[in-house]
Amino acid sequence: MGVPLPVVWETLLPSHSLEVRNTANEIFHEKLINNINNGNGALYPKVQEVLEYLKKQNVDLYIASNGQTPYLRAIVEQYNLTKWITEVFSINQIESLDKTKLVGEIVRKYSIQHGAVVGDRLSDINAAKGNGLIAIGCRFDFAQEEELAQADLVISSLEELKSVIVEKTVK
Question: Under CATH, which architecture does the 47-170 domain have?
Answer without folding.
Answer: 3-Layer(aba) Sandwich (3.40)
